[in-house]
Amino acid sequence: MVTSQIRSLLALLAFSFVYTTLPAQTWGVYDLQGNLKSLAIYDRIEVLSETVITGKNEKGLSMLSRDLRPVVDLKGDEVYQYLAPWILVKGPKGIGAFHEYGMQALPLEYDEIQTYYNFLLGRKGKEYWFFEKGKEKTTAIGTWEKANFTKNGILIGQKAGSYFLPLSKDPERPYKLIQENEGNYLLAQENTGFGILNFEGDYVMQPTLAQLEHTRGDYFYGYDQNQYLLIKGDHIKSDVSYNSYHKITREGGLMLEYIHGKLRRVMEGDGILLDSVGIESVKLVGDNLYNVNFRGNKVGLLGKKGWQVLPSTDLNWINPGAEGLFPAGKGGKTGFVNSSGKWVIEPRFAEAGNFSERIASFRNSSKWGLVGMDGHIISEPKWDEIKNFSSGIAIAQDNGQFFLLEKTGSMLNQEGFDKVCRLKEGYFLVERNGKRGLLSSVGTEILPTDFDNIQVEKLDFFIVSKGGLTGVLNEKGDAIFPINYQEIVADWAGNQILAKELYKPVVIQVEESTKGKRKKGA
C-alpha cells in the first residue's frame, strides 16, 4: 500500500531526469491511518520529545518541522545527548549546545557540557565556562580540577584540596568540604566547624558545629559543646528541632538516645519517634520500620506513625507486611501475624514473602509454593522463585525457565520462557532462544516468539523487527505497517508515523543543452 505510493512519486520525478545508483534513505510521513502525507531524504531521524525532531542527511544535522523540513542547522554530526530543554550536539571539534527552541548557546568545541534548567557548564580540559539563558551570556569561570552542578543548581568547584562556590557572592571563599545529599541543603565545613548552606550558597546555619551528618530529607544530626542536635534545614535559618545532653548514636540510618547509659528513645529526623522504658535493642528492618525489643522478650514493629504490630511475647521478630498481615518468626519458623501481634497463620514455614492479592509465597526447602490468607496451601513448593501477584498473575521461575501462574497455582504457559518482563501497559514481553514475543495481560499469546525485537509504543500498537526489517502490528497480529521498512519512529505529539525505506536509484537532474548536446551532470 505505502510502498507503491512512494515508488510512483519517485518514478514521476525520474521521468525527465538521468539517474545513477547512489543509495538514499527515503522517509515517509504517515497519519495514524497509514495515509502518506509527505516524503523526505534522511539517513537518520530521531523524535527527542513532543516538540523536538532531528534529522541527518548529506546536507548535515538539523532540527526538523513536523513535515520533516529542516528548520535549524545543528552544525554537527550527531545528537550527543538530549537533556530538555538542551540538545547537546557532537561535531569534529567537540560538543556544543542548542536550546530546543533553536538558539545555539555553546559552539561545538567543548569536551563536556553539564546542564541545569537554563544553565550550562562547558569544559575544555580544565577550563570551565558558564552560560545562563536569561542573560544569553557565556562567562569564563576559571580552571578547576572538577566542577559540577548539584541537583538544586549550585555550582561547586574543587582545586588544591578545597571546595568553592564559583557563582556565589564570595566565589574565592575556600571550604574544607561541601557535600550534596538527597535533601535541599548542603553540608559545609570550614576551619571553624560544620554548617548548612541553602541553594543560593548562603549559610542557614553558621559553620560552628563540631560534628554534622545528613540523615534524610532536609534533616541533619549534629554535635557541639556536649549536646546532640537534630536540625531541620530551612532557606532562611535552619531550626534545631531537638537538642539533648544525653548521648544520641547514629549508625546505619538508626538513631537512638541513651539516658544515664540506658536505651530509652528511638529518634527520627526532627525528634522522638518512641520514648519507652525497658527497650533492650532496636533493629532497622525497612524504611522507617523498626523491630523494638523490650525486656520480658516482647517485640513489636514500629513505623513512622506508631506501632504497625503491637509488642508481643509470642514473637521473635517481625518483618514489614502487606494487606494487613506481617511475616513473623518464632522458634526458627515463619508465619503471619496481624497488627495486634496475634498469629493468623501459625509459624510453620522456613521463609515466607508478603501477601499480594491475598496470596503469599513460602518455602520449607529450596523450593517455593503458595499459601492463602486462611493458611490453606494453594500450591506445593516446586518453584525456585515466585514474584508477587498483580492483576491475577505471578511470574515464577524453575530451572532457569519462567512461567506465568494464575491464583490457583496453575501454569498459563506449559513451555517455559528464557525471560519474562511485565510491561506498564499490562502486556508480558517474553523471550525464547533469543527471539521475542508478546502476551496479553491474561497470558494469552498476541505475538509468537519469532521477532528480533518488540517495542510496545502503546496499547494495540507494536513496532516489531524481524530479519533486519521493521513494521507495526496490532493485538490481532495484523500489519498496520508491513514488515519491510528499515526503521519506524512514532511521533505521537504530531499524530504521525515516520517510516524509512532504502531506495535505489537516486534521481540526479542533468541540464539539457540548447544545441542538442547534453552537459555532464554531477
SSE layout:
Layout: H1 2-14, E1 18-20, E2 24-31, E3 36-41, E4 44-47, E5 53-57, E6 60-64, E7 70-73, E8 78-83, E9 86-91, E10 94-99, E11 104-110, E12 112-116, E13 119-124, E14 127-132, E15 137-143, E16 146-149, E17 155-159, E18 162-164, E19 177-179, E20 186-190, E21 193-197, E22 203-209, E23 211-214, E24 219-224, E25 227-232, E26 239-244, E27 247-251, E28 254-259, E29 262-268, E30 271-275, E31 279-286, E32 289-294, E33 298-303, E34 306-312, E35 317-318, E36 326-330, E37 333-337, E38 343-349, E39 351-352, E40 359-363, E41 368-372, E42 377-383, E43 385-386, E44 394-398, E45 401-405, E46 419-422, E47 428-432, E48 435-439, E49 445-451, E50 453-458, E51 461-466, E52 469-473, E53 479-485, E54 487-491, E55 496-503, E56 506-508
Antiparallel strand pairs: 1-56, 2-3, 2-55, 4-5, 5-6, 6-7, 8-9, 9-10, 10-11, 12-13, 13-14, 14-15, 16-17, 17-18, 19-20, 20-21, 21-22, 23-24, 24-25, 25-26, 27-28, 28-29, 29-30, 31-32, 32-33, 33-34, 35-36, 36-37, 37-38, 39-40, 40-41, 41-42, 43-44, 44-45, 46-47, 47-48, 48-49, 50-51, 51-52, 52-53, ...
